[in-house]
Structures are given as C-alpha cells and as structure tokens.
Amino acid sequence: MSKDHFEHKAGTYEKDDNRVSNVGNIANSIIASVSLDRNMQLMDFGSGTGLLLERIAPFVKKITAVDISKSMNAQLAKKQASLGCEIEILEIDLAAADICQKYDGIISSMTMHHVKDTEAMFGKFHALLNEGGFIAISDLDSEDGSFHTEDTGVYHSGFARDSIAQAAQRAGFRDIEVKDASVVRKPHGEYPVFLLTAKK
C-alpha cells in the first residue's frame, strides 16, 4: 500500500478556514453548473474528509466516496450517518483499481494534481459514467509550485485550463466548460481555482 500522505493532517484537516471556504465555493459552483436530482448516484473522487460531498449530499440519492487515504476515510466515516444522502466509502487507488458500478456524475475537488496520468483518469471517468452523465472537476490553475509547502504526492503544479479541457475532450467528453470557481488565499500568495464540467 502506498504511503498515506494525509495521515498526520486528517484530524485537523477541516480546521483550516481557507480550505473549508474554498471547498464551499467549489460546491456552490458545482450546484450552479450541473443539474442535480434526488435520484442521482455520484462518485466523489478524492473525497478526503467529505468537505465537498457533504455540501452536495442533500441534492442527490447516493455518493460513493473514493479516496486512497485510510486516515481521511476514517474522518469521513465519523460523520457518514449525519450526511444528507447515502454514503459509501471505497478505500482504493482509482488509477489502479477497476469499479463495476456506473455513476450519474463524478465530482472532485483539488485531487487531480495528485494524479500522475490525468489523461488516463479522464478516460476512466468517461467509462464510469452512465450515458449523459457529467463530470465536475475542480483544481488549481497553473502555479509556480509554491502552493504545496509539503509533499502530499503532488504531480502537477496546477493545470492550464485549455490543456485540461483538451484532455477531457480526448477522453470523449462533450459540452466542456471551464470557469472560475474559487481563490485559495495563503500567506505567500493567491491561487485561482477552476471548475471543469462536461458530459458523456
């Protein structure tokens, strides 16, 4: 099993007001950008402690939380019963694992920069969706590498919006849009965050 890069910070992960505010902005952007309904089953890729999915939960039937970190999943499990829809937790590396289930949508917040092969991941997202399903993927715009002050398994210093949109297009997605979602403010700078939405 690979190293749990978040083991030392899982317990205090939600005490960072900037982080919580950023995910709140991303959730609001997703809610405004895609049609959600109470029959939908979604996947939250890189779900962590559930900051994003707990905001989306009241609008859908079920969310499958997918995260490689045992410690982050443990934090999510503590509040699982109090969330606004059914929650299933899968502790897997989605880059390496295969899932038989199909989803109506895949949401993700600040996870793609931890994925080595983003092209392959978009292909996997496409395969995991029902026809007409959506992705709503949020991450950092290209930055100078200063966003992460510690090693949490980072492969990309953000993404150029046209490049990530093209990766989604090559995977077969249509109706691709990339828009402003949030700004992360740190003592040493401000980091814009985008939301990419698309349909299968």
Describe the protein's architecture and organization.
The chain is an alpha/beta fold and 200 residues long. The protein has one domain (10-199): Vaccinia Virus protein VP39 (Rossmann fold). 26% of the residues lie in helices and 29% in strands. The protein contains five helices and seven strands; from the N terminus they run H-E-H-E-H-E-E-H-E-H-E-E. It has helices at 17-33, 53-56, 70-79, 118-128, 161-170, and strands at residues 41-45, 62-66, 86-90, 103-109, 129-140, 174-186, 189-199. It has a seven-stranded mixed β-sheet with strand order 3-2-1-4-5-7-6. Helix 3 links the parallel strand 2 (62-66) and strand 3 (86-90). Helix 4 crosses helix 5. It starts with 16 loop residues before the first helix and ends with a strand.
Shape: globular
Main β sheet profile: 7 strands, mixed
The CA-CA distance between the termini, in Å, is 32 Å
CATH architectural arrangement: 3-Layer(aba) Sandwich
CATH fold name, please? Rossmann fold
| Number of structural domains | 1
Using only C-alpha atoms, the radius of gyration works out to: 15 Å
> What proportion of the residues is helical, as a percent range?
25-40%
What would CATH call the class?
Alpha Beta
Global structural class: alpha/beta
Order of strands across the main sheet: 3-2-1-4-5-7-6
Mean pLDDT: 91
Number of helices: 5
Beta-strand proportion? 25-35%
Q: How many E strands?
A: 7
Oligomer: single chain
What is the H-and-E element order? HEHEHEEHEHEE
What low-confidence regions span 5 or more consecutive residues with pLDDT below 50?
none
- CATH H-level homologous superfamily name: Vaccinia Virus protein VP39
